[in-house]
Amino acid sequence: MAQKPSIPKGTRDFSPEVMIKRNYIFDTIREVFKLYGYQPIETPAMENLSTLMGKYGEEGDRLLFKVLNSGEFLGKLNEDQKATTDANKFATFISEKGLKYDLTVPFARYVVQHQNEITFPFKRYQIQPVWRADRPQKGRYREFYQCDVDVIGSDALLNEVELVLIIDAIFRRLGIETEVKINNRKILAGIAEIIGEPDRIIDITIAIDKLDKIGLEAVNAELAEKGIQKDAIDKLQPIILLEGILKEKFPKLMEILQDSEIGMRGLEETMTIMKYLKELDLKTHWTLDLTLARGLNYYTGAIFEVKAKDAQMGSICGGGRYDDLTGIFGLPNVSGVGVSFGADRIFDVMNELDLFPESAQIGTQIMFANFGFKEAQYCLKAVTRLRQAGINAELFPDSGRMKKQMSYADSKKIRFVALVGESEMNENLITLKNMESGDQRKISIEELIKEFTY
Q: Which end of the chain is more exposed for a tag (fewer CB within 10 A), N or C?
């Protein structure tokens, strides 16, 4: 008995109808990236584990898909290595490569490897799949696409402002009402400093980053489990729950962080970014959110997270400033900043809110029925003219049964079918059938092209 085919959990097949919608998202994002002067690159699906490990924190290392070494790798292990019961540790003995977890770390590796070919500041975009060995759930997949835009080789805060403009432009075009949450890792470092836990910034940020998902009590419990002192947790509460408009928040934060040099630097950077944003005509609402931490370890400055206002979904875009990610690969002091658009979550939001325009759901616009060899010869010329005019057209490959041909057009949601027999060829016309209404009329190719292109 043949085995029933299946795919791994957390991965998906995409039908033509879905792909048309997904490509609408990709094309929209790509158009905006190009509009702002960003250039495309691609990096391999696999990277060396030495490139990936240690860049995303303990949780990220655990979620890396590792690729088994080729050949008889077990014979090369010593007895101690074979005897280990630590799965993650054992994986490092038999794997030298891994599927990429995100696009940012491979981008940093690319910049270092190709530094002599790059003009800085380097503005790049990248649209590719990434993989994470996560537990599949709504909006979270093991294979998914990221659409990244980064500028590296400049620490000017105008880059952060431009990223918010890109976010606004993309979601305006897609029709999604969004909110951009902004924070700064230097502010968080300052908070850790003034509550007396300066060395625990990673534990603190990982915990408070979950505030929206698990609530304040669970965050406090996680902080306690990590060994954060109770008085430090108590001092943290009024800071992360600070409310009010920006005019009220900033003076309070300046007072709170006045004894932290790094905290004050982060505050100044954030205020500068927001002064720029205040003067711009943005549809996207933006706000300061002190609970925003972004779990990845490499962020050092401004951080961003975007959520859809009208859908129950996690972040659909996020990113931030990283001051020395390339330093890990031997090129120190090259600052970069970028954001990543989650195409799969954006698709889910647009589907849920019915935001895809009719133009994003068009496949074949007109199908020519096939009545036989002579008719097909005539139709091939007509189909070619339509395609040259930018109209999606096809000729059914098999002659004969008209019911089968009409069923094919119905199943593909093709709105118009062209019927060409002896009389149509003699008159140099086609009979155009509207598959929705059933109406039929004779029309010339020239008239048809005008109707479809205007």
A: N
